[in-house]
Amino acid sequence: MIELDDIGYSYGGGELFNGISLTLQPGSFHFLTGPSGSGKTTLMKLCYGALHATSGQVRLFGRDLREMESDDLAHIRRRVGVVHQDCQFLDHLNVVDNISLPLIVSNQELLPHAANLKDLLNWVGLKSRAEAMPPELSGGERQRAAVARAVIMSPDAILADEPTGNVDWEMSQRLLRLLTELNRMGKTILVATHDLALIRAAKQHVQARVLRIANGKLHLAGADL
Amino acid sequence: MDLSNITDAIIGDTQAGRVVPSTGFTATLTLFSAFAMAFLAVFTLALSMASGRLADRWGSELARNSTIRISAPVSQIAAQTEAALRILQTTSGVASARALDDSEQQALLEPWFGPDLPIDTLPIPQLIEVFEDEDGFNADGLRLRLAAEVPGAVLDDHTRWREPLVAAANRLRSLAIVSIVLIAGATAAMVTLAANSALAANTQVIRVLRLVGAQDSYIARAFVRRFTLRALFGALTGVIIGALAILALPSPQEEGGFLTGLGFQGAQWLWLLLIPPLAAIVAFVATRTAAYKILRSMP
């Protein structure tokens, strides 16, 4: 589904990492951990084509990202839901419009999705906040809205970058439950986090592999996690 | 495909327009630029039309009319006038000719010498007004015949007056057309500037839209739609205000000459209808070019 083949990434004259290979199989659940600045967010961005690797090959659904036109990449991104650490909402649109954004930009009629949208808002616990503007949301509400936006197109894979970075433990557990539920529905999940406690908690509910990026290399983390 | 589908295909749908936040500064800049340029375009077009009419009038009126001046001793003037009129009657291309009477000649001199000029006591040349038919006459041939039979006659076919006046009017019309092109260029430059500014201010919005799977064409259309509609509305307002200003000018008068003739006549007003769509097309092309340039430069 998502394949990184011997990729490297450099910027500003320095090499962030090289020789990284990773395959995310359909229905798998991976955590990506590592110290701050190790390249977790960069690796995530490489996975959905927001950045291009300086060496190696990234394939999404069997297609080489480098050989894709921008329109093809847009179509591929609709199959990958992304949850950013800072959520990345459009502040001039309310919560329901932000969640519906993937439908809007893919020119889909919103009416047939209205029931799903209502269910989705219920599922993430934001039914009462549908008309709120993003700046009015708490950290947890923003993250849940971001998860809702990431799944509204029923993507094959969900990439979440520090989804629990700005929320308390209880909320992080709630978000984790949402992600594990999605994994049970067959979605491929990749979560970048530095929160080892979260990873330990997750492993009680889901079969997850833990990857650690450090010193420019990617390793499978030990059983201590 | 209904009309809304066509407009959606060209300038984007309303949903696409909604996902881009409105930016006050660029909105005002685009609206004002389109308004000011359309207002100026109305006057430039009026100038172009007026100079065109002037060139046509000078060209046709003076071209169809010639004058023969007979300067001879008083005792020979009548005979030479008759001889000249006889020649004119047999000249191909001359529709009619007549000698001006004393009162007409006096009226011509009145602005310089006043109304009490004793014209019959002064050695004033006799003027013969010659009107050409559609084909016109051979001025050189007529000059040769007059020189042979009417020694005091001088034919003035107004060429030396007409040509520089018509050339000046035509040049004025050309300058007006160049001005319209410059106005369109300046509009494009300002809209491009405003579009670039809006796109730069919305880099984060563009990133989010791409993140959720928006195609570049969708993002470009969101901006193009906004700027095209602003330019259309601004230009429409500019044309209306400009047209009202033209209507408020004094009506054409003989004494006012060119200045009071500035404006549109009859179907010429229809030209104004072209300005708003042209401004919209300029904005469409400028914004689309700017949007795709910026989107291609973004990773």
Describe the structure using short key phrases.
heterodimer, A: 225 residues, alpha/beta, Rossmann fold, 6-stranded mixed β-sheet, 4-stranded antiparallel β-sheet, globular, B: 299 residues, alpha+beta, 2 domains
**Rg of chain B computed from alpha carbons, rounded to a whole number of angstroms:** 31 Å
The CATH architecture assignment of chain A turns out to be 3-Layer(aba) Sandwich
What is Rg of chain A? 17 Å
Helix content of chain A: 25-40%
Task: Summarize the amount of helix of chain B as a percent range.
Answer: 55-70%
Strand order of the largest sheet of chain A: 6-7-8-3-9-10
Number of strands of chain A: 10
Most extensive interface, chain pair and sizes: A-B, 26 and 22 residues
The backbone outline of chain A, from C-alpha atoms, is: globular
Spatial order of the strands forming the largest sheet of chain B: 2-3-1-4
Low-confidence stretches of chain A: none
Distance between the termini of chain A: 25 Å
**What's the helix count of chain B?**
10
Helix-strand pattern of chain B = HHHEHEHEHEHHHH
Task: Outline the fold blueprint.
The complex is a heterodimer of chains A (225) and B (299).
Chain A: E1 2-11, E2 14-24, E3 29-33, H1 40-47, E4 55-60, E5 63-64, H2 70-77, E6 80-83, H3 95-105, H4 114-123, H5 139-151, E7 157-161, H6 169-184, E8 188-192, H7 196-203, E9 209-214, E10 217-220
Parallel strand pairs in A: 3-8, 3-9, 6-7, 7-8
Antiparallel strand pairs in A: 1-2, 1-4, 4-5, 9-10
Helix pairs in contact in A: 3-5, 5-6
Chain B: H1 3-11, H2 14-18, H3 24-63, E1 65-70, H4 74-89, E2 94-99, H5 102-113, E3 126-132, H6 139-149, E4 153-156, H7 159-201, H8 203-211, H9 216-247, H10 275-297
Antiparallel strand pairs in B: 1-3, 1-4, 2-3
